[in-house]
Each structure stands twice: as C-alpha cells, then as structure tokens.
C-alpha cells in the first residue's frame, strides 16, 4: 500500500477532528467563523478521503478515517470541554486505537 495514500488518509482524519471539534464552537451554526471552519474542514476531509480510497480499500480507509476522527475528537473533548476521562472511556478509546492499528497492519 502506498505511504502517500496512508498519509493522505491521516491528514483527512485530522481535518475530521477539526470539523467535529469546531461544531462545539459553531454553536448551532450561529458562530459564522467556527461554522466556516466546519464546512471547509469537512470538504477537505472528505476530499482527501476520496483521494486515499483511490489506492486503499474503501472499507479499511473509511474505518481508519472515522476511527482516528473519533479518537481525536474524544480526546479533545476531554481536554477542551471537560468531558469525563474515566477508565472505561479511556479503555474504549484504546480499543478504537487497537482497531485502527489492526486495520492498517492487515491492509
């Protein structure tokens, strides 16, 4: 598998984190600046995902993309928004990370 495709997928997932976190700041899309960040980051995220799936299997790419997005957003929710950081919650995040690594290794 192409390293460039994997790098593109990771950047796509980082943009997914950006838009997901900025949904909080967009305040129901009433904050224009944060709303613009959401829309642009969404477009970049999906656009880069579409590039990555030209090389990577779509099922693997989509699962890794959403997994990285979910983990990053959950961690930033803990850090930025005082969401709970319980042992069970962190264990679930670790399980997602294990799944992401497993999918990447077996792709």
How would you explain this protein's 3D organization?
This protein has helices at 3-26, 32-52, 58-81, 87-106. With 107 residues, it is an all-alpha fold. It has one domain. The longest helix is centred in the first third of the chain and has 24 residues, at 3-26.
Question: What tags apply to this protein structure?
Answer:
single chain, 107 residues, mainly alpha, 4 helices, 83% helix, EmrE-like, cell membrane, transmembrane helix, SugE protein
Q: How many distinct folded domains? A: 1
Q: How far do the termini sit from each other?
A: 8 Å
Gross morphology is: flat
Q: Element order, helices and strands? A: HHHH
Reconstruct the topology from this structure.
Elements: H1 3-26, H2 32-52, H3 58-81, H4 87-106
